[in-house]
Every structure is written in C-alpha cells, then in structure tokens.
Design brief:
single chain; alpha+beta; D-Maltodextrin-Binding Protein, domain 2; eight-stranded mixed beta sheet; 14 strands; binds 7-O-phosphono-alpha-L-galacto-hept-2-ulopyranose
Length: 320
C-alpha cells in the first residue's frame, strides 16, 4: 500500500499526463470522439503499465456501451494494491474539439479498504462547491442568493465582488438571474463544470464557487478534490426520468434525492490528479515546443492534504 500512498500519486499523474498529451493532438480539430478515444486509450495503457489491481468505478459508461474504461473493467498488472478508480479521460470533449478553455484529463483513486468512492449513477447532479473558507457556511437547500451572501461574509467581501461559476444551460436561467439580482458576478462556461469546481477550491483562481446542475459521475471526482483541499461540497442527484431514479435506488442506500455531503461521495484515503489539455480556469493546457511538450497538472492526496502543481517537460512524446 505504501507505494500508492507516497509515490502512487506521481504514477497517477503520469496517467492524466499521457491522456492529456494524446487528446491534445485533437484540440481544435472538431472531432470530439477521436479526442475522447485518444485520451481513453492513453489512460488505459498508462494504468495497465502500473502495478495495481484497479477497478473502474466511474468511467466511460457500462461495458456494452463503452469499449474501454467501462465500469467494472479491471486494469493494472494484477500485482500490487487494490484500488477503485474514477476517471474522466477527457472532461470537456466539445471544449477540446473547439479548442476552447477548460478541457482537462482527470483521475481519482481510493485504496480498497482505506478509501471509498461513490458508484454514482450516470445522471445529473445539482452541485454547490466552495473553498475552505466557505465550507461550513453553505447549505444547498437555501436559495442561491442566500448562499452567496453567506459565502461573501465568510470571505470578508461584498456580494458584488463574488464570482460564481455556472454551466451555460437554459436549465440555469433562473439560477443565473437570481445570482445577478443579488449583485453577484457569474462566470458562465459552455462545458466543463469539473474544471471550474476545482478552480473554486483554489484561493488563487479567482472563482469563489460553483453552482448548478452537471454530471453526477464528475461530481464524485469533484468531491475527491474537495476532500483533499478541505473545501466544501453539497449535492443532490437530479433524475431525467423514473428509470434513472429506479437505477439510483438500486445503486445507493437511502433516499436517492437527499442532500449528499462530500463524505457521501468520497471517503478515506484518496488521491486526485488532473492535467490541462486546453488552458482554462484551473490549469494551462498542453504546449508544444520544438521537439517537446509541456503539461501542467494538479495532484492532491487526502492523507496529507498536500496539493502539488506540476509542470512537466515531455521529451518522449506519444505517437499521435
Ligand atoms: C456537461 C459538461 C460538464 O456535465 O454539461 C455535462 O460540460 C452535462 O450537462 O462538465 P449537459 O447534458 O447539459 O451537457 C459535465 O460533464 C460534468 O459535470
């Protein structure tokens, strides 16, 4: 186990770096599926080269609909520690295809018996994510205008100095109007609420929180970063139909519509790694130079609360 604890996070860094490098060849080419495949293949190869008995708990979907990194897939050499892995090899497929900001590659891992990741159903999730200073004041059951006021108080600023990230979707029209009405500034993003949520955990990033409905699986990845940074997160699953709700009832204990706290989404000894594909709120993207490429990543570990930003020079580039 020790190797996952201390050095394993660096191996997981290699996994998101390889996925980002492979996806970056597809930036701006208008081909989101090709970009996603490249990221998945690279991530899968990198995980298979590690001494792990890894099981994907959050991935590209069910076995029959995803050729690789499907839920339940076993990866790694079969030697070494058992780990649960949650992946989003290319978060923001459209962003990558359009060369737009905030495409990233992400992985979270929990050591079997020491950590745990929720096996989230592939549905929507209403999320409220904030940094450490606001962690104890938020309550997702209160109106957004109240949360933003409580957050501003905790941060010692005025509401009109706050910036809240929100996915630009018609379902968020009233949320956006309410935040603006309260005086808050809204950072609208076309896709990629995971990048924005993690940026909200970083006091340097200039984003005070994330609100609104995005993917539930990405919510679990977000929760791992929240745990590692000491931030705050509250969430609620949102179902598009009864079938989705029924599925969730079978996958989780208790009321599937209850408020989920960070510890309902991830617990214990967990690690997180994300690498930028296109530059955005959280990370710089992959930059190609003469004969080499440079990546920026963020790597975190709950056991120590260490957060590392790592710039890597890659002189041995993967084949396109
Ligand atoms: C996307 C994506 C997000 O959720 O919006 C998706 O950009 C779900 O929303 O980053 P839509 O179905 O409206 O596109 C995320 O993938 C993750 O939360």
């Amino acid at each position: 186990m020790a190797n996952i604890d201390k050095h394993g996070q660096i191996d997981f860094l290699r996994v998101t770096e390889q996925a980002a490098l492979s996806a970056s060849k597809w930036v701006g080419k208008g081909k989101k599926d090709e970009a996603d495949d490249a990221a998945c293949q690279a991530m899968r190869n990198a995980l298979n080269s590690m001494d792990l008995q890894a099981t994907i708990v959050i991935g590209e979907g069910e076995r029959d609909e995803a050729p690789m990194l499907y839920i339940g897939e076993s990866l790694g050499s079969g030697e070494g520690p058992e780990v649960q892995i949650a992946v989003d090899p290319l978060e923001g497929t459209n962003l990558c295809a359009n060369g737009a900001p905030n495409a990233i590659s992400v992985l979270a891992a929990a050591i079997e018996g020491e950590g745990w990741l929720m096996h989230a159903p592939d549905t929507y999730m209403d999320k409220l994510v904030v940094g450490r200073e606001c962690a104890s004041v938020i309550d997702i059951t209160l109106p957004p205008r109240v949360n933003v006021r409580l957050m501003a108080q905790a941060l010692g600023k005025d509401v009109d100095e706050m910036i809240i990230g929100v996915l630009d979707r018609p379902r968020h029209d009233s949320l956006i109007a309410e935040l603006r009405e309260a005086g808050c500034r809204v950072h609208l993003v076309p896709d990629g609420d995971l990048s924005v949520a993690i940026a909200a955990l970083d006091p340097e990033a200039g984003i005070d929180g994330l609100m609104g409905i995005g993917g539930a699986p990405e919510g679990v990845l977000t929760a791992v970063a929240v745990m590692c940074t000491g931030g705050g997160m509250q969430a609620r699953l949102k179902f598009r139909n009864n079938e989705e709700k029924e599925r969730a009832v079978h996958m989780m204990d208790g009321d599937p519509e209850r408020v989920l706290m960070t510890s309902d989404l991830a617990r214990g000894n967990v690690v997180f790694s994300a690498t930028g594909i296109t530059s955005g709120d959280l990370l710089k993207g992959v930059r190609f130079k003469r004969g080499y490429a440079q990546t920026e990543s963020i790597v975190m570990r709950s056991a120590t609360g260490q957060i590392r930003r790592i710039e890597t020079v890659h002189q041995d580039l993967p084949d396109a």
